[in-house]
Write the structure tokens for this entry.
Amino acid sequence: MPLTQTHPVSIHTWHWRGFPIRYQQAGETGVPMLLVHGFGASSDHWRKNIPVLADTNRVFAIDLLGFGYSAKPTPGEAIQYTFDTWGQQLLDFCREVIGGPVLLVGNSIGCVAALQAAVLEPEWVRGVAMLDCSLRMLHDRKRATLPWYRRFGSVWLQQVLGNRAIGQFFFSQIAQPKTVRKVLLQAYGRKDAVTDELVDLLLKPAFEPGAVDVFLAFIRYSQGPLAEDLLSQVTCPVLVLWGTEDPWEPIALGREFANYPCVQDFIPLDGLGHCPQDEAPEVVNPILQRWAAVF
């Protein structure tokens, strides 16, 4: 499918349960597509995809509650940061902003949020595309299968980070350009995609009020659904894309998702890492457009 043009992207604020939520929008025709970012990212991580996908679809990208430039209420007070919360946020966005059923496209934990939405209210989700889905290796059930010394290490770290002073210091060491760049170079298969622009757009929201507490809350979130739990309940078609060089979510484990009845296709992305939509949009965008064309 040839790409003929890119479309202007507009930025908006939607109020959900009293909290301001940022989202981006482009395109006026075609099946609506909602893009959902991963942990520590925002809708800006789709900046190379939104204006191109808008050539064939109405495209929306949202900052999940607690991330990007959306509100970051104190964890456990006004709201819980769980996949149930984010799944409901996506569904309410479909109802109140988009106005109809959508195609959900997620990266990393955004995949789990998308699957959660598809399970909660299937009538609002026409299909789900997952890019390097989070395997949630620190989940209690997965951790229980590890040797005791590996279980102890992760539990100890989570407990230590529960101390707010220690957690804030830990976050301050991470939220630095040099550290962010190092992490991205580990995660990305294409190293030249790790630019100053990328580092800046991921780092800036980390200094928003409440960002530290949300980060620490999610690091300690070892419950809730696994992708496997949700895939066994999903009734809409699912497309899975996976970077062969993803060091965080190994493709060998991801391939197991192809065994679920809802998964119609599993496409390895050679040489790409954890964020293929940003590393190689010229590869990912056409795949998503061909997929969306059948709905």
